[in-house]
Specification:
2 copies of one chain form a homodimer. Chain A has helices spanning 42-48, 98-101, 157-160, 166-176, 192-203, 215-224, 235-240, 259-262, 286-290, 304-317, 331-339, 352-356, and strands at residues 2-8, 17-23, 30-40, 65-72, 84-87, 90-92, 113-114, 140-144, 149-150, 184-188, 207-212, 228-231, 245-250, 265-273, 295-298, 323-327, 346-350. In chain A, α4 packs across α5. Chain A is 25% helix and 26% strand. Chain A is globular, with a radius of gyration of 20 Å. The first copy, chain A, has 2 domains: 2-165 and 322-356, Alpha-Beta Complex (Quinone Oxidoreductase, Chain A, domain 1); 167-298, Rossmann fold. The longest helix of chain A is centred in the C-terminal third of the chain and has 14 residues, at 304-317. The two termini of chain A are 20 Å apart. In chain A, strands 3, 4, 5, 8, 9, 16 and 17 form a 7-stranded mixed beta sheet that branches. The first copy, chain A, has a 6-stranded parallel beta sheet with strand order 12-11-10-13-14-15. By secondary structure, chain A is of the alpha/beta class. The first copy, chain A, is built from 12 helices and 17 strands. Chains A and B meet through β14, α9 and β15 of A and β14, α9 and β15 of B.
């Protein structure tokens, strides 16, 4: 076993504290990675705090991981020691269901195994089965090759980390619903997800409209590449944009009234929810869907093949996240700022701070 | 002008009573129809009672109309005196928007003109512009050719009437989402819409599952053509059908919890709402949409071309509605029974009873 230092939450309301645990030695299909950077996702905070009532402790959060490969198993093909690798929200899946066979492991019918706050399940007889998974706020991680992406040379690695969750979560729906040139696309909400949505939709050739409550965020969205800003509280402006959008990417992370946004869509068009897992309320009305045959849908992260595609696209187009780097000792303060949306647009933990403290 | 007798509501809570009004003489594009039968749609009751707070009085309900053509204008091509004709929920639309140009008048961006409880709007300079529209609980109606379908010979006309709303409302989504053989399709709720949904999905070749709270309705659904019955309150049965449906047609006419139904859908599949216009509550959750990229959508009636297609399909496949015929003098009692779901599956008014009473 490999002894690994990290930071963990031990209870619903406790701060994250130093924590030492063990990971398996790499098997023939495994990649052992020395972690360099770990992004802080809003869902890290939700889970550390047990907001979704499904937290398993001790919990080492972190599913936006970039690091250097230190060792690979004998069967590993796509990575070798010294390569830069990324790990996102999943570390395993059943491999047998239709979703896994179509490279959509995130929709695994048995449930993908999450990078943290999860356990290997009974369908899987692999090393570490049944044990808690531990995430990226740690020195090292060992992951099967299928769930590791290769990061092309020359990228700003600390700003690559958030691509593994915020990036793929917005990339996957933009690609699945074939967003591209000639389309008017709205990105609703400007945070970790929204800022990646703007960058990707623009790079894919769409006319991008940032839809936000905040004129200030609107300005920043233009800096990120938005062509237009639509203030959602301006009812006249909203009416002027009615029936005009080809696609809406809704990144708001809490329940809210989606009916005014559905009214923006063209007939037969789609709004995809990527930020909210809980109740979408006030409720959607039947008439919002029936009038113009609008689609309300959702999308979760992305499969491993499309995650690799996204990273390669980012390398080619010079896209990374806008980040603020912190030492791991500042993680609890960062969580407080995440809850206040006081970050542009992602905190990234410099894992060197963990090693240096030892 | 043509003097026409009918039945009208005059206030939110008043019963329908005899009412005489005028219709325009047919213009060059108009068809004048002697009404034979008028179905009673659940929405007639809602609107007569002002449940949607948009009622215009006096109101002559009725948008499931079958009758005999008595006169046509000089420019009318597809119908002649003596033909049997049908009129549904719309009598006009702008003809200029993308929806109208694609034969989807029900999604007219200016708003289609409804057969009753509506007025001609300012974009339209036609005879009768600005006047209230009056529906099918009456002796005669005058409608522009585009909004009239031709009913093939040999059909049971009284049972054809409900096809003009209940029929097309279920036909249009089944066709739009390409329901056919090899698919497992669920019809949720067995009423006026649901019973047509079962007949159409079966005739289109799907494996049809009636999803209902009531074992009795389940039995009746099998008589109508359902292959299987799934009782929505049986949580084990619901779990056994999880992730197995290619398409769900949700005909429940009131707000309800759609999350258990979304769990039945295969990844990337669609549930279409056709019965509820108001709030869909308890609210849908983000995770119900995100887990498997499910689509929640809606569909309203259908365009005139697809209404003709549906009537022709019904003639070819021997499909009509299951109805109970009443004289118009019994309309208020029928409304009470509609509110109790005490009808299998549609009341149809014999308009001869209106003429005989004169």
């Amino acid at each position: 076993m490999i002894e690994v230092r990290g930071y963990a939450a031990h209870d619903d309301h406790s701060p994250l504290v130093p924590f030492t645990f063990q990971r398996r030695e790499p098997g023939p299909h495994d990649v052992q990675i020395e972690i360099l950077y770990a992004g802080i996702c809003h869902s890290d905070v939700h889970q550390a705090h047990n907001d979704w009532s499904n937290s398993l402790y001790p919990m080492v959060p972190g599913h936006e991981i970039v690091g250097r490969v230190v060792k690979v198993g004998a069967e590993v093909k796509k990575l070798k020691a010294g390569d830069i690798a990324g790990v996102g929200c999943m570390v395993d899946s059943c491999r047998q269901c239709s979703a896994c066979k179509e490279d959509l492991e995130q929709y695994c019918e048995q449930g993908a195994i999450l990078t943290y706050n999860d356990k290997a399940r009974s369908y899987k007889e692999r090393p570490g089965s049944g044990q808690l998974t531990f995430g990226g706020y740690s020195e090292q991680i060992v992951v099967e090759e299928r769930f590791v992406v290769k990061v092309p040379a020359g990228m700003d690695l600390k700003a690559v980390a958030p691509l593994l969750c915020a990036g793929i979560t917005t990339w996957s729906p933009l690609r699945h619903w074939k967003v591209g040139s000639g389309q008017k696309v709205g990105v609703i909400g400007l945070g970790g997800l929204g800022h990646m949505g703007v960058k990707f939709a623009k790079a894919l050739g769409a006319h991008v409209v940032m839809i936000t409550t905040s004129p200030e965020k609107g300005k920043d969205a233009k800096r990120l590449g938005a062509d237009e800003v639509l203030l959602s509280r301006d009812t006249d402006a909203m009416a002027a944009h009615a029936l005009s959008f080809d696609f809406l990417l809704n990144t708001i992370p809490v329940g809210h009234d989606v009916n005014p946004y559905l009214a923006l869509l063209k007939r037969d068009s789609t709004m995809v929810m990527v930020g909210v897992l809980t109740a979408i309320e006030p409720p959607v009305t039947g008439v919002s869907l029936i009038g113009g045959r609008k689609n309300l849908t959702g999308s979760g992260i992305g499969g491993m093949a499309e995650t690799q595609e996204m990273i390669d696209f980012c390398a080619e187009h010079g896209i990374v996240s806008d980040i603020e780097m912190i030492p791991i000792q500042a993680v609890n303060q960062a969580y407080e700022r995440v809850l206040k949306n006081d970050v542009k647009y992602r905190f990234v933990i410099d894992i060197a701070s963990l090693r240096d403290a030892a």
